[in-house]
Write a structure and sequence with these properties.
Elements: E1 4-12, E2 17-19, H1 20-23, H2 31-38, E3 42-44, H3 54-68, E4 78-82, H4 93-101, E5 107-111, H5 117-130, E6 136-143, H6 156-159, E7 165-173, E8 179-187, E9 195-196, H7 206-211, E10 223-224, H8 226-247, E11 257-260, H9 265-274, H10 286-289, H11 296-306, E12 315-322, E13 326-333
Parallel strand pairs: 4-5, 4-6, 11-12
Antiparallel strand pairs: 1-7, 2-3, 6-7, 8-13, 9-10, 12-13
The structure holds acetyl coenzyme *A.
């Protein structure tokens, strides 16, 4: 079996910074509430006409990752694209990336696992490398969420949390000790309705939305049972991390850097306390970008690498929990 190595990392976020105070233009909220409950200070939101979509932002992040990996789009054998906010209902954004980057007619796969999307995507890519089927895979997490939020006071529990952006990694066949040591994926679909966008979908296709939609029905906006999600998250995050550590005979103290999905700073702090980890062992940047769902881990990972917080040989652990419910972790020897 071959080993997998992250050989390039890139990120892209829209230029437009939206502070907590800016949000008071749309809804009854305030900086203090948002900071205290989530840790978020600002987020990036695309503006109409700036050309940012899940696919185009993914391409921008991917170009940086490719350059840092010393590869061109022609070297890429496969694309895995994680998003909950694709440009089209179908096809997925992976094929757009294949086209925009000018890759050969390689396979492109979309992953629909929301906040756990990048963990599922990296795991998928890892399997293709490990079996020897592919040598270089582009793994992208990208979200344009700002255009789908209810920005009125009615939607404030969700609207203040989410941001736009993209992160990408190149996963290549490893020729040294670097490897993805193990991956751990979980789901519990009985909670699908606790964090969801139901429309459009099989039960409510787009034509129903246009033709005879009940104006009171807001199921085309994200619904999140925040408290409920929070309670599950603080259990599942440590569980997924400990499962991965145990599989590799490691302890939380062996982690050089934990990169949790940036769901809420309070969740990360809870996990840190529970696992008795030091501040320098955890990457948090939700303060600047909000929750960018499938993009949050590759954005945080890229930023950690750029800041010198992630070095070759380090034990890097990712963990996520979100809609589905889905959760999981990757244990990486970087
Ligand atoms: N500004 C001001 N007040 C607000 C806001 C806001 N933006 N939003 C809600 N409030 C009010 C509510 O109306 C409520 O008021 P009330 O007590 O008078 O009814 C009060 O604040 C408390 O609301 P809660 O929803 O109970 O607040 P909570 O402490 O649960 O925090 C939050 C909400 C931040 C969403 C939290 O529940 C959370 O972080 N949940 C987990 C989020 C998460 O991890 N999601 C998974 C990833 S997302 C994905 O997978 C796509």
């Amino acid at each position: 079996m071959y080993k997998s190595k992250i050989t390039g990392l890139g990120k892209y976020v829209p230029d437009n910074i939206v502070t907590n105070n800016d949000l008071t233009k749309y809804m009854d909220t305030n900086d203090q509430w948002i900071r205290e409950r989530t840790g978020i200070e600002e987020r990036r939101w695309a503006v109409p006409g700036d050309g940012n979509t899940a696919a185009t932002m993914g391409v921008k992040a991917a170009k940086i990752a490719l350059e840092r990996a010393n590869l061109t789009p022609k070297d890429i054998d496969f694309i895995v694209f994680a998003t909950l906010s694709p440009d089209y209902y179908f096809p997925g954004s992976g094929v757009q990336v294949q086209d925009m980057l000018g890759c050969d007619t390689i396979g492109a796969l979309d992953v629909r696992n929301q906040c756990s999307g990048f963990i599922y995507a990296l795991t998928t890519a890892d399997q293709f490398i490990k079996t020897g089927m592919y040598k270089n895979i582009l793994v992208i997490g990208s979200e344009l969420q700002s255009t789908g939020l209810d920005l009125s006071t009615r939607g404030r529990g969700v609207g203040v949390i989410f941001g736009d952006g993209a992160g990408a990694v190149v996963l290549s066949r490893s020729d040294d000790d670097s490897d993805i040591l193990s991956n751990h994926l979980h789901s519990e679909g009985k909670y699908a309705s606790e964090l969801t966008v139901k429309v459009p979908g099989g039960e409510n296709p787009p034509n129903k939305l246009v033709e005879n939609w009940d104006p009171e029905d807001l199921t085309y906006y994200p619904y999140m049972n925040g408290n409920y999600v929070f309670k599950h998250a603080v259990t599942r995050f440590p569980e997924a991390i400990m499962e991965g550590l145990k599989a590799n005979n490691l302890t939380p103290q062996d982690i050089d850097l934990l990169i949790p999905h940036q769901a809420n700073l309070r969740i990360s702090q809870f996990v840190q306390k529970r696992l008795r980890m030091k501040d320098e062992q955890i990457m948090n940047n939700i303060q600047k970008y909000g929750n960018t769902t499938a993009a949050s881990i590759p954005i945080a990972m890229t930023e950690a690498w750029e800041q010198g917080r992630m070095k070759r040989g380090d034990i890097v652990v990712t963990a996520a929990f979100g809609s589905g419910f889905t959760w999981g972790s990757n244990i990486i020897k970087f």
